[in-house]
Amino acid sequence: MNILVCISHVPDTTTRITFEPNGKSLNKAGVTFVINPYDEFGLSKAMEFKEKSNDVHISVICVGDIETEPTLRKALAIGADDAFRIDTQPLDSFSVATLIAEWAKNKSFDLIFTGKESIDENSGAVPGMLAELLGFSFISYATKLDVNGKSVIAYREIDNGMEILEAQLPLLVSCQKGIAEWRIPNMRGIMAARSKPLTVINALQVENRVNTLNFKQPEGKTGCVYYSSDNPEELISVLSTKGII
Amino acid sequence: MSVLVYAELDSGRFKKATLEACSYGVALATMRNSDVAAIVIGECHESELLQIVECGISKVFRVLDSHLETFTTTKYISVIQSIVRENGFNTLITSQSYNSKSITPGLSIRLKSAFISGVVGLPRIEDGKEIYQRMAFSGKGVEEVIALLSDIVISVKTNSFGVNKNKTGELNVIPFNFSLSDDVNDIVPKEIIKTSSTISLTDAEKVVSGGRGLKGPENWGMIEELAGLLGAATACSKPVADVEWRPHHEHVGQTGIQISPDLYIAIGISGAIQHLAGVNSSKVIVVINKDSEAPFFKSADYGIVGDAFEVVPKLINAVKKMKNSL
């Protein structure tokens, strides 16, 4: 089974987000970057398959410049066999999906994993776009996935519940919490990752469809109004007066 | 610049988020001085359609086809694409339900459109261009974007715009016949398992959430009671779901569910940055924690420093008293 895991290089979940003074981009000073947590669920799921069979090959791909390479090395340390980096700054979801689709289209992947969304842009657009561009069947928000030969049974999250689906490989799956447990790379993995192939691919010219003009920090709360623990009725009456409850 | 809203049915009903998307579509069309219509796929009662009229949409494309009784991305993308193309709409609006979120990116490819996900209000106009705002970095940033194509697909962030059901009009249903080829390659939906009859977290207008400060699953009775009285959904922090005091589908936060209710009451949750990422779009945040240094208070509108086991029963009594006095 030939698996591709698409990886976004994103600020760690604990990062305090600030932007450059011109508002054009994230202020990267002091920010630790990680594998997008939802993409890492996909990689962890791929590793489960690899541990059960000798016939599983895992590639990881990222669209980004050289600073994304440590993130790809971490994916190799977790256990991917090879890594690919499409050498350009991602502009929007469409350009990222198109670049990955153009690269992946003739490579006969059986299974492509993405996260349900990246925690930087939160658009959740690349998985659906990539499935459409590649003509792959698409399971979104997957919380469980079993593969038996070419047959797949998956659970996907829906509003207020779960849906059970049957599908056939090849398939694109966007991953939600529950599909697999994150893994911490061990020392052997980290050592092995150094010598695994990381191939840089020249990016095609793709025009973006959405342009980011600026970022700013959301307006913060104006400050917490405290009520006494002896008299929480006051809080209820305030919430009621304001029509909140 | 005409606008089509995908008015998604959920078990024959429109959810609040769908009516919100309708209201948004109407407001956008008004701004542009253009037409607006909706597409409804599947069976529903006529009175349900009147809700769309109240939002300001009279023209409804109605698709009834046995192939479309169950949702799959392939089928729904195909039928919506046909309606948009055959009728020359250039803007498609949806909610951010799980199913809508699953089709909008693919639709944007089919429709050769720009896709803007999770807008939080009407665009402002600058040099004749529509500039849309959306949240990024898990609620820690506001992003302004423009579409570089004239055709766009827009999803509206849940509970960011509101429902405006104050219009009157005559319902005009246009049946749309759509012959779907049996796509052998498609996904086959087998079963839907709804979580208990409690209020869905993503739709809930109010949420009462508990953290490790509650010490054990046996203490959730008061959380459920308070939620029940307020008509709120219950939620929990990640550590609570991880030790299985509560089911995983209640976990709100960076890696759990992201919610944006009108009221979020956090009890015994310290407010780690990953938790905030899931709830920071809530309109009003109430924090109850015995640690006055808990970081959550910095993001709260109202706070009570105190022991949950003393404060929550008092709150329950206060809500009961308030209800009785109404």
* Total number of strands of chain A: 13
CATH architecture of chain A: 3-Layer(aba) Sandwich
Q: What multimeric state do the chains show?
A: heterodimer
The neighbouring-strand order within the major sheet of chain A is 9-8-7-10-6-1-4-5-11
- The structural class of chain A is alpha/beta
CATH third-level topology of the largest domain in chain B: Rossmann fold
CATH superfamily of the largest domain in chain B: HUPs
Main beta sheet of chain B:
7 strands, parallel
Structural class of chain B: alpha/beta
Shape of chain B: globular
The strand order across the widest sheet of chain B is 7-11-6-1-4-5-12
Instruction: Tell me the domain tally of chain A.
Output: 1
Please render the helix and strand layout as text.
The complex is a heterodimer of chains A (245) and B (326).
Chain A (H helix, E strand, L loop, with lengths): L1 E5 L2 E3 L21 E3 L1 H16 L4 E7 L5 H10 L3 E6 L5 H12 L6 E5 L10 H9 L2 E12 L2 E8 L2 E8 L2 E5 L11 H9 L2 E5 L7 E7 L8 E3 L5 H9 L4
Parallel strand pairs in A: 1-4, 1-6, 4-5, 5-11, 6-10, 7-10
Antiparallel strand pairs in A: 2-3, 7-8, 8-9
Chain B lengths: L2 E4 L2 E2 L2 E2 L1 H17 L3 E6 L4 H10 L3 E5 L9 H14 L4 E4 L3 H13 L3 E6 L4 E3 L2 E8 L4 E7 L4 E5 L15 E4 L12 E7 L11 E5 L10 H10 L2 E4 L1 H5 L20 E5 L5 H7 L4 E6 L12 E4 L2 H18 L1
Parallel strand pairs in B: 1-4, 1-6, 4-5, 5-12, 6-11, 7-11, 14-15, 14-16, 16-17, 17-18
Antiparallel strand pairs in B: 2-3, 8-9, 9-10
Helix pairs in contact in B: 3-4, 5-8
